[in-house]
Amino acid sequence: MKRTLMTDKTLTSPLNATRTPADHGRHVVAQRYPGRWISALVLAVLLALVAHSMITNPNFAWSTVGKYLFSPTILLGLWTTFWLTLVIMVLAIVLSVLLAVMRLSSNPLLVGFSRGWIWFFRGTPVLVQLIFWYNLAALYPQVSLGIPGLFTLWSGSTNDLITPLAAAILGLGLNESAYMAEIIRAGISSVDDGQQEAARALGMTRGQYLKRVILPQAIPFIIPPTGNQVIGMLKTTSLVSVISLSDLLYSAQAIYSRTYENIPLLIVACIWYLAATTVLSLVQARVEHHYRWTRG
Questions:
Q1: N or C, where is the chain less crowded by C-beta within 10 Å?
Q2: CB of 229 closer than 8 Å to CB of 284
Q3: How far apart are alpha carbons 182 and 190 in whole angstroms?
Q4: Residue 288 CB: number of other CB atoms within 10 A?
Q5: Cα–Cα distance between 243 and 129 in angstroms, integer?
Q6: Diameter of the chain measured on Cα atoms
Q7: DSSP state string for 192-241
């Protein structure tokens, strides 16, 4: 005798087996969120009102904004802002690596020096540091290299040595090194201590251990906050306008001091700052994606 198989889906399906006659004809309805639509509508109306006000308000002087947006003076200030940010961050990263290694050292003198550096430069306003370095000649009119009372290798005026550019690099670079040192220290500390024991078992020195084991694993944790610091430093460079360094903001100020068109020139500076930070944000996202892909 041939056996027959049951093909009725209503009997073989476990879902249909538990369904009652009253369930037939029903369908699932997605949950509605009226609050989302109302809040989105309110936000859209507010944005439309703000945009309409900015476009129709003649005090914004958009024609003046377009006139100076690609002005050679503005573009030169933008270039100064970019390369000043680069130089400051390179200086800060080099110093911060040294400070972080000193902070994690077993030598109490090095640990104390690193902590003191971080305490001082994080505890005083960066604007005060900029003004201090710019006026260093008030404390030391002359700078000399050599042994006092015996011989002098070089001597010069502090005003000639500490230019607005030098004051900006020292003030912002030393301040940023304190913050970057804590970022790098946290990244290094995130690596398990067992890695150090394994490296010592393989006969690695401390330098080889940091270079080959610790830093490659710590970099994915260091990159995101470092990118944030770079973007923040790009905007912080606007403080150098107080010491008459021709960055983007100072260039805009130089123009509106002659034309008295303050708001349009400030809008020009804001547009370029937004464009620059957007580019850096995209680069940061790309770098973070690369390291996530590499780790994966």
A1: N
A2: no
A3: 12
A4: 14
A5: 11
A6: 120
A7: -HHHHHHHHHTT--HHHHIIIIIHHHHHHHHHHHHHHHHHHHHHHGGGGG
Residue found under tokens 């430093």: 233
Residue showing tokens 């006659």: 21
Comparing C-alpha atoms, which of 243, 236, 240, 242 is closest to residue 277?
236
**Beta strand segments in 91-218, E:** 142-147, 151-157
pTM of this structure: 0.79
The tokens describing 294, both together, are 């590499």
How many Cα neighbours within 13 Å face the side chain of 254? 16
Is 181:95 a contact under the CB 8 Å cutoff?
A: yes
Residues 6 or more apart whose CB falls under 8 angstroms from that of 264 comprise: 60, 61, 62, 64, 65, 68, 256
The owner of tokens 């080099």 is: 94
Average pLDDT, stretch 100-108? 87
Element of type H or E holding 174: helix 164-189
DSSP 105: S
Q: What angle do CA 64, 262, 76 make, to 5 degrees?
A: 70
The counts of H helices and E strands in the chain are 14, 2
Residues 100 and 269 sit within 8 Å (Cβ to Cβ): no
Run of H or E residues at 272: helix 262-295
pLDDT (average), residues 283-289: 87
Residue linked to tokens 């000043």: 84
Tell me the residue type at 144: S
Residue 43, phi-psi category: left (phi > 0), alpha (psi -120 to 50), beta (remainder): alpha
CA dist., res. 238 & res. 276, Å (int) = 13
Q: Are 246 and 93 in contact (CB under 8 A)?
A: no
Residue type, 228: N
